[in-house]
């Protein structure tokens, strides 16, 4: 539920005035997902919902120019996806890498974009 609230708060017109609240919702969602160790997570080695929550929070931080925090969250998302038996591609990490690279491109950080896409290509092939 916290994930939905974080998303709703971050997309509302007054999101800038509620950045702290959005971070609280994202943190609560991630913490809840970390506690939610279930059979699928044990079988698959990763939690796709956690991958998505970390990615979403990272993108939120990136758009607010908190690039260090954003990169840390996005890296955690990719690391979580890497635990999947099919690797990053199977765990949803390719989506994170693609969205992350798109934001880096908007910032003009082409070396970072290239390295992210190379990771993405390695994951798929």
Which terms would index this structure?
flat; 8 helices; 125 residues; mainly alpha
How does this structure look, described?
By secondary structure, the protein is mostly helical. About 80% of the residues lie in helices and about 0% in strands. The chain is built from eight helices and no strands. Helix 4 (about 50-65) packs parallel to helix 7.
Summarize the structure.
The protein has 125 residues and is an all-alpha fold. It is 79% helix and 0% strand.
Structural class: mainly alpha
Largest sheet: none
Helix coverage percent: over 70%
Q: What's the β-strand tally?
A: 0
The radius of gyration is 15 Å
Q: How many individual helices?
A: 8
What fraction of residues sit in β-strands?
under 5%
Low-confidence stretches: none
First-last Cα distance: 35 Å
The shape, in one word, is flat
What is the average per-residue confidence, as pLDDT, rounded to a whole number?
84
Order of helices and strands: HHHHHHHH
